Amino acid sequence: MSRTPICDFVRQYAESDAVRLHMPGHKGKPFLGCEALDITEIPGADVLYHARGVIRESEEIAAALFGAGRTLYSAEGSSLCIRAMLQLAQQYARLRGVRPLIAAGRNAHRVFLEGAALLDLPIRWVGCGDELLRAEPVLSELEALFSGEEKPAAVYLTSPDYLGNEIELRPIAALCRANGALLLVDNAHGAYLRFLEPSRHPMDRGADLCCDSAHKTLPALTGCAYLHLSRTCPKELLPMAEQAMALFASTSPSYLLLQSLDALNAKLSGGYPERIRETAQRAEDCRAALSAGGWALCGTEPLKLTLLPKARGYTGDELAETLTDAGFVPEFADPDHLVLMLTPETAGEELRSLTYVLLSLSPRAPIAERPPRRSAADPVLTPREALLSPFESLPTERCLGRVLASPCVGCPPAVPIAVCGERLDENALTLFRYYGVAELEVVLSY
Questions:
Q1: Which domain holds residue 306?
Q2: Fewer CB atoms inside 10 Å of the end CB: C or N, the chain?
């Protein structure tokens, strides 16, 4: 069983009955029931992002479990880790004396755009096809970029994406390494991939830095995440990682979330990885049964079921309502998709019942309607200029010709119909209406 230094410290403190003349204001007295374990950075509790005690010890246990050169905890989700990765990419570019150009898959989480805007990083979009929930760059596209006049300092990709599609990272990692560029991966939906056999985690496929949301696919509280620096990551970045996280983080981290991450180490050191693998097999059996029963699915991520319900005559939104009425609450639905996320906490009987409900729905005539094709972007302002400009909110139908001020996507991470700073044409407005976006924020003076 793995050590749990953070949990042990907090538990001992809670049992000491000390008079708490420090934050937080509840003083450990029950209200929700967790207050006794909710502390601040008192002596002995260590300091997140300047960790030298129990937090650092726990992070090192996590790093060993994930095979990382350095792992840092986030109590603010992968959003914080994404911003920190961009700051580290900028510092790496400056160390090399080059402009911090980032080549990024257009299905990046909106936090990527916001972080790049705050840091004033130039972006070159890759993988900009017609799909709005998937952007997989062709290797030749990246090779052309690295053969150009200005090479990217880093490549930023999302894998797996929201629909469960995984990118083949190894050749991209080799290309980045050959050109002295970093490979950054948003792995928020794939923390559990490390514990499959063989591992499918981005670090084991060549990523230099990546973020994992522990709360999305592992049994951790909402907001728990990791920033991983791989064992092959440039060593000069290791001492900069804490400062990069602290630059964007709250100075009042939740010790309830830190305890959740600490306790998770013990689970991952025990039998939980075997449970992950068993659940992946049950999910594969469910996927096979649904396919045999006429349901269309997409994606390769083992613990995510993404249905394409129009092939069976249902919209994703309609199917989500049907499942919710039957006691199953989906992760996401839009007109074309239904996303269901599984973990070992999803009981085998629950998965069998889900399969039964889906197979019991009578097939209908396929729905032919598809999303309108996305048109080429018309950038007018940089994301930074757009995000920091005064804006107004208008009904979508009144935004023709205006410049988008802030990201607006159907779900994170997704391919934006338009990126902040791009001018909105009739095609973009048609897409926004298709996804039910009734109001947009547009730059005031454009």
A1: 272-360
A2: N
